Amino acid sequence: MIVPLEHVLVLALAVFLMGAGCALLRRNLIMILLGVEIMLNASGIAFVGSSLAWRELHGQAFVLFIMGVAAAEVAVGLALVVYAHRRTGRLDADHFSKLRE
Amino acid sequence: MVQSAAILALILPLLGFVFHVAAGRFVSRRTVETAACAAILGSLIGACLALAAGWGQAGSVTLFPWFRAGDFAASFDLLLDPLSLLMAVLVGFISLLVHCYSVPFMRGDPGYIRYYGYLNLFVFFMLAVALADNLVFLFLGWEGMGLCSYSLIGHWFHSGERTAAARKAFLVTRTGDVAFLIGVALLFAQGVDPSVSSIQAQAASLSGGTAALLGLLLLWAAAGKSAQFPLLVWLPDAMAGPTPVSALIHAATMAASGVYLLARLFPVLALSPTVLLGIGAVGTLTALWGAASALAQRDIKRVLAWSTLSQVGFMMLAIGAGDPAASMFHLIVHAIFKSLLFLAAGCLIQALGEEHDIFAMGGKLRHRLPHVFWPFFFGVLALAAVPPFSGFWSKGRVLSAVLAQPGAGYTALALAASAAALLTSLYAFRLLLLAFFGRSARTDALRPESVPGSMSGILWPLALLCLMAGTLDLPGHWGASNWLTGVLASAPGLPHGPEGVSEALVALLDSALALAGLLLALLAYGPMERFFPRIPEGARLWNLMARGFGLDGTYERILARPYRSGANLLWLRVEQGLLETASSGAAALLGRASSGVRLWTTGRLSTYLLMLLAGLVLILLIAAGMRS
Amino acid sequence: MNVFPLLTVLILLPLAGSVAAPAFSRKPAACRAFALALTLAQLVFLLAVIPWAGMPGTVVLREDLAWIPSLGARYSLAMDGISYLLVLLTSFLGVLAVLVSWREIRSRIAAHYASLLLVQATAMGIFLARDLLLFALFWELQLVPVFFLIAVWGHEARRRAAFKFFLFSIAGGLLMLLAVIGLYVAHGVATGTYTFALTDLLASPTSPFLQGWLFAGFLLGFAVKTPIIPLHIWLPDAHTQAPTAGSLFLAGVLLKTGSYGLLRFGLPLFPHAAAQAAPLLIVLGLAALIYGAWVCFAQTDVKRLVAFSSIGHMGLILLGLTVWNEISLQGSVLQMVNHALTTGALFIMVGMLSERTGTRDLTDLGGLWQRIPLFSSFFLLFCLAAAGLPGLNNFVGELLILVGSFEQHPAAACIGFAGAVLILGYILRLVQATLFGLSGAREDLADLTPREAAIVAPLAGAVLFLGLAPSPVLDLLREPVQALLAQWGG
Predict the structure, then answer these.
(1) Is residue B6 part of a domain?
(2) Which end of chain C is more exposed for a tag (fewer CB within 10 A), N or C?
(3) Pairs of residues, one from chain A and one from chain B, whose beta carbons lie less than 8 Å apart
(4) Average pLDDT, whole number, for chain C?
């Protein structure tokens, strides 16, 4: 491998952390969804790198799975966000807090 | 023959009780009264037949087994020896007289079914105590007497005072009963079957310490039932009951049952001279205490009550001196004259319309009620031990028994007993003089017709016996044999009495004391009283004596009141306070913790995502830790 | 192993009745008749059929079926003399409970009888089970109907009382269940066989340290039920607020399950731990006796007074169980029955009294002897029985317990004897305040109706019978007690 596996994993970790930060620290629903997307892609990076390092094709195949799952999840998530926005006119995550005591 | 007669004697009063409970409401008053008296009459006949038929021998009969577990067995056994049969005859005789007396005495009372029922039941229990062999059966009678006493003292239950007196009697006697049961348990633990016959047979096998302990326990039990120091506080208050009840229960039978128990179980006591001396000391102390208190009473029944416990003290002293036969002699004699005095007092009380104060009685009574006065006079003479009345002989026997014992302790007891005898004579004549010779003007309420002939008629047989009963056990040097001692000596377990110290000396001493008391009483209360210093009947010391030297008050202060306040304290502070707070506090703590955790459910997405991430990190760390 | 499952019938009969009762919810009269018929049938079954199959004193009836083989739990029931006696008691009290709630319960009658029958069924299960898991099942199950009995048909503060009862009992039950599982696992690890059966676990080779903890778990579970102070906190409220039938079952049956559990499971399973804990248990038993009697004295609520008296009596039973010799064990079991009868009778009479006068306050009652003499006579009889008067039932049990304890623990026995004075104190106070004194001169009170007499008379008869001729019962107990002693000499 041209790039050592450790570097790829570090990249994946960095992207994961950025995605996590985006999901946790932002209040806008769409930004949270973006963060989740980024985290999914980070895991995809990790899969690709490992697949290359261990010469296993399953890793690459799994990335395709992840992309599919990510697309489906974003579709459903955005649909919910759009519906929520239409109902309340707000996209603030803290606004939707009825699931409490 | 002996056995069936004895069983009949025992069962008839119980059947009377059952009859009254079951059918009393459906038959006439006359029937109830007749049934009650008939049951006792039958019982007396049975007891006399048993005594006559089984003369001098001991027999036993088992009615039926009660319960047993392991080696411990209780059964309804009877031991029929001269002592027990004699006691049964005495109980039957006095009970019969009291029952017949009750018929006119309680003539207006609506609670008559209850009265006769409990009276019959009491006689059954007393006979059970007298005849029982197995100690648990004896205890049945013992406690049963306590129950009947409670019910009869509190017969007029509308009055809070009377029911309080009944409660006190039951509670105080029960403290004695506790010692009885501990004694039974102790006997069983030592391998002795808890029955009178086993004790008489195996007493010698008990170790010294056990015998002493047992003796003390029996003393405490007897002190409870016989109102000896320190459990004497209930008897004066027990006078709240109807007078026939006082005569039967608190003079002749239950009050003496403690002494009877000690006489029955004398072989155990005989093993420990210390215990005997202790019994003598308790008896003498009570004799003095009672006599002194009797001297200061105004209520006629209270005089007689203090007198009773004082005389029972003499009986205890005789046991302590090692002469149970003397004790039994005095028991029989005392039963006769004390019940006579009580019944006569009942006549007086009714004649004066429920007046109890002797200072309200006077000379008019002597003239208008001679048929009450003369028997009362006989009774007083017997109480004061004036020769030739029965009390003289029995008290003489007691004193001579004490004097016959060596040792400084017994000498001291003899001196104290003599002082008590003097006081006895003094208060007896004080009673007589104030009741029948005084100058009170308050005798207008006198209604001689309210004393039916049937009531005062009962007094005569007793009066006669007061004179004659001394012949039961005349000392040897008067020419007659010691009949009673002889009879009782054949009962297993009772030793031959100690040879009396010069009988004539004791007789002289006794008469001297009696006459001295008479003289003093005449001086203080008789026709010559204006020449002599007035008795300070209002002084502090006198009041103290009237209150029984404040023992009752002391118990109230150190036992009853702290117990009551302790109960309230425990209820309010501990149950409702501490424990309730503890459990509610635990619940509240949980509630607060729960509220604290509840803060995590903010409903906000960002919080949940954070927690999700934190949890994931934690799991990964643990997984990493486990792998390495 | 019996051909016909007699013992299961005992459990199934009231269970079936409990399930069937809601069918009568529109017809209260039919429901009452049904419940009465069922409980009477069970009593007859116990008295007639079971002895015919083999007298429980000498013969032990058994049933043993596979239940959860993978866990090693079996459906195992057995009836020896002790179990027979307690089952008979439960059945008898069941009949009385049905009769007592005849007029008292006015709403949701079918549900009430369903609860009563369910309590009876679970109690039978507790007394008959010989498999620890089965026992724990019935133990926990019992709480449900009792909770509803108190919470739905009770008096003014019933909710709180029901919750307190439930929480205390379930906490104790949880600890006991943990101990059961612990014992199961420990035994399995030590011997290789995983089983819940009592007979197999009796000689389990567990370490003393572990035994101590397991015993503590069992003890705490039983201590809540018996009750052992200071875990008695639930009892006064529960007894006071429950309806009369509920109090009857609480005092007569539930409390006995606690002491029975100690007798059958707690003490035999962990002999060494029990021997070490004996001084503590003796002290607690005596403390309960004295404390119960002392607090009783300050009560003004009649039902609460009787409830506290239960604490005292159970303390004495605990003493008898701890001492563990032949005489005291026979006395304890007998006293369990005696206490159930006497205290049950007192609760019944107090219930009748409060139905008539509308009050449970001692300061308002008084002078009943004149107004309702028949009632008062029975009441006096039961009060005297509670006070331990010889010739009545409590005396025999108490005497046997204390005589049995005297040899090894003389001081404890003396204190136990002295407790009689304290008991008499509050009994006389109770009698005085209700029967004697001046009455508050109100309207006429009705004396005992035939139905009430039918409840009270058998109880009085039992009290007298057990007081004067308890030999049949003691004979019933002799062999089971000796068998228990053979397992562990104490």
Answers:
(1) no
(2) N
(3) 30
(4) 89
- Name the residue in chain B with its Cα closest to that of C305: B571
Of C319, C325, C490, nearest in space to C407 by CA:
C325
Q: How far is C41 from chain B (nearest CA, A)?
A: 31
- Among chain C residues, CA nearest to B21: C377
Q: Does domain A5-88 have CATH number 1.10.287.3510?
A: yes
Is residue B296 domain-resident? yes
A interface with B, Cβ–Cβ below 8 Å: 20, 23-25, 27, 32, 93-94, 96-101
Query: DSSP of B321-377, one letter per residue?
Result: TT-HHHHHHHHHHHHHHHHHHHHHHHHHHHHTTS--BGGG-BHHHHHH-HHHHHHHH
Q: Could you list the residue range(s) of the whole structural domain that residue B391 is in?
A: 272-535
Q: Indicate whether B176 belongs to any domain.
A: no
Higher per-residue confidence, C376 vs B537: C376
Do A and B touch, counting CB pairs below 8 Å (3 needed)?
A: yes
Total tally of structural domains belonging to chain B:
1
Partners of B575 on chain C (C-beta within 8 Å) are 236, 295
- Are residues B484 and B325 in contact, defined by beta-carbon separation less than 8 angstroms? yes
Query: Does residue B568 lie within any of the structural domains?
Result: no
Highest mean pLDDT out of B81-90, C69-78, C335-344, C446-455 = C335-344
Domains of chain A, residue spans:
5-88
ipTM of model: 0.92
If you average pLDDT over residues B424-449, what whole number do you get?
78
Q: Please report the pLDDT score of residue B528 as a whole number.
A: 60
For C236, the closest chain B residue by CA position comes to: B575
Q: Which of B604, B610, B613 sits opposite A94 (nearest CB)?
A: B604
B66·C469 Cβ contact <8 A: yes
Interface test with chain B among C372, C428, C439, by most B beta carbons within 10 Å: C428
DSSP, residue by residue, C219-277: HHHHHHHTT-TTTTTHHHHHHHHS-HHHHHHIIIIIHHHHHHHIIIIIHHH-HHHHHHH
Digit-coded pLDDT (tens) for B455-482: 777 888 888 887 777 776 666 555 445 6
Please tell me which of the candidates B171, B568, B579 has its beta carbon nearest to residue C425.
B171
Give me the residue from B143, B188, B582 closest to C389, CB to CB. B143
Q: Are C250 and C239 in contact (CB under 8 A)?
A: yes
**pLDDT, tens only, C355-409:** 888 888 888 888 888 888 899 999 999 999 999 999 999 999 999 999 999 989 9
Give the CA count within 13 Å in the CB-facing half-sphere of B360.
Answer: 17
CA distance C427 to C119: 30
Using the Cβ of B186 and the Cβ atoms of chain C, whether some distance falls under 8 Å is answered with yes
Torsion of CA C343, C345, C350, C356, to 10 degrees: 170
pLDDT at C65: 83
Task: Work out the average pLDDT over C230-238.
Answer: 90
- In this prediction, residues C208-235 reach a mean pLDDT of 90
Interface of chain B toward chain A, CB-CB under 8 angstroms = 598, 601-606, 609-610, 613
pTM: 0.89
